[in-house]
Amino acid sequence: MAVDTEKLGLPTEGYPYRLMGVFGMLGAISGSRTAKSMATILIAEDYDDNRELLRIVLNAAGYEVHEARNGAECVQIARRNPPDLVMVDLSMPELDGWGVFRELKADPTTAGIPCIAVTAHVDSDRQRVLKSGFDAFVGKPFRTDELLSTVEKLFQKPVA
User: Fold this and answer.
1) 14-22+31-152, which class in CATH?
2) What whole-number distance in Å separates Cα of residue 116 and Cα of residue 85?
3) Where are the alpha helices (DSSP H) in 87-140?
4) Which helix (H) or strand (E) holds 115?
């Protein structure tokens, strides 16, 4: 059943409207994953709303999600219980995403974990992120299909 956004007084364009599309896609996403559904993803994001949105989308796609509120917490969690993938916001307190990436890659326990950089500074960070060794890049606000496609591609890459 379609939602009449005008009748409900909901926005029909812009970022809030795209977020509504995220939730509309969740039904199509859930149940479509394979045995690797229990892959673990650690999200490092200092904004609660962004972290929650990432968690909702990834959970609906069948991933187990762990969360960190800052870079230092991310490194601690990753070392204690290494995830299959780390998604890290580049601008965070205590330790930014660049520092998280350096620390994870310097530690033999976490060096092999693929890392996705997540940032709102799409134009200025994209090339720098990929040149620095991150496995992928996701801009904010993200599109659900692009986010999940990026994650899925990393899980399909052969392990070195």
Assistant:
1) alpha beta
2) 8
3) 97-106, 122-132
4) strand 115-119
In sequence order, which residues have a C-beta less than 8 Å from that of residue 150 and are 6 or more positions away?
A: 116, 136, 137, 138
Residue found by looking up tokens 């801009």 in the block: 139
pLDDT, one tens digit per residue, over 10-42 is: 444 554 444 444 444 444 444 444 434 589 999
Residue 19 structure tokens? 């977020």
Q: Which of 61, 13, 56, 73 is nearest to 37 (CA)?
A: 61
Would you list the domain boundaries of the chain? Answer: 14-22+31-152
pTM of the model: 0.76
Inter-CA distances, 47 with 2, 34, 105, 124, 127, Å: 31, 30, 24, 21, 24
User: What is the DSSP code (8-state) at residue 37?
Assistant: G
> Rounded distance, CA 86 to CA 151, Å?
10
**What value, to the nearest 5°, has the Cα angle with vertex 33 and ends 80 and 67?**
30
Q: Which amino acid is at 136?
A: A
Cβ–Cβ under 8 Å, residues 104 and 152: no
Q: Quick check: helix, strand or coil at residue 43?
A: strand
Which of 94, 55, 87 lies closest to 155, judged by CA?
87
